[in-house]
């Protein structure tokens, strides 16, 4: 099975323009990402999909592959779909370009899940909440799934709602980690569909996939999907990286 990883990295960002090239402990953010992705053992290949020649040049100078894509894509999913046109791929893994601590083992877990379960259209990941403040935050997405480990719903609100605080709720709340594996055919179908009402309400693109009937596995991970969106995030990630040395 050919599994291609794609790292979308656009220049524009409402909170941190050009963040792909912002230095993190002396290296551009995108370098941290591609170096960690290169450690995944089950990817046939991977690439950075960008709309800016500056990002492309940095990636290529590091010895990795970058492809230019349209600057007009509304989502990273649309960008990766353009990037893999003409590629021999059975599964495409969308790897966030702003997570310098991405776990290569998680990428392999998603690849293995898609290989071993041909009935799936997609796979994603979730991690237990470690901070009650994050559970209440609308910027942190939550997910619930069924008995066979497939996603039922994603929300910015805490789900499931616990009516009686005396009930045992350990293990019910999970933080969604924004990495996705797509069956190639389903990816092509997904980007052709208009946003559904649930997606527009929550501003969560993965709800479009559920709306059109996707079977989406949720794998458990310790990776919290720590992204860089603000100058404060840069400082936080640098502290984490220094503490790992």
Structure summary:
With 245 residues, this protein is α/β, with parallel strands linked by helices. The chain has a single domain, classed as Spore Coat Polysaccharide Biosynthesis Protein SpsA, Chain A, CATH 3.90.550.
Overview of this protein structure:
By secondary structure, the chain is an alpha/beta fold. The chain has one domain: Spore Coat Polysaccharide Biosynthesis Protein SpsA, Chain A, CATH 3.90.550.10. It is globular. The mean pLDDT is 93. α2 links the parallel β4 and β5. It is 32% helix and 22% strand. The protein has nine helices and eleven strands. Strands 1, 4, 5, 6, 7, 8, 9, 10 and 11 form a nine-stranded mixed β-sheet that branches. The chain has a two-stranded antiparallel ribbon with strand order 2-3.
SSE diagram, text form:
Layout: E1 3-9, E2 23-24, E3 27-28, H1 29-37, E4 45-50, H2 53-61, E5 66-68, H3 76-83, E6 91-94, H4 104-116, E7 122-128, H5 132-136, E8 142-145, E9 151-155, E10 174-183, H6 184-192, H7 197-202, H8 206-211, E11 216-220, H9 231-244
Parallel strand pairs: 1-4, 1-6, 4-5, 7-11
Antiparallel strand pairs: 2-3, 6-10, 7-10, 8-9, 8-10
What structural category characterises the helix and strand content? alpha/beta
**Residue share in helix:** 25-40%
Tally of separate helices:
9
Name the CATH architecture: Alpha-Beta Complex
Average pLDDT for all residues = 93
Unreliable residue stretches: none
The name of the CATH topology is Spore Coat Polysaccharide Biosynthesis Protein SpsA, Chain A
Let me know the CATH homologous superfamily: Spore Coat Polysaccharide Biosynthesis Protein SpsA, Chain A
Largest sheet: 9 strands, mixed
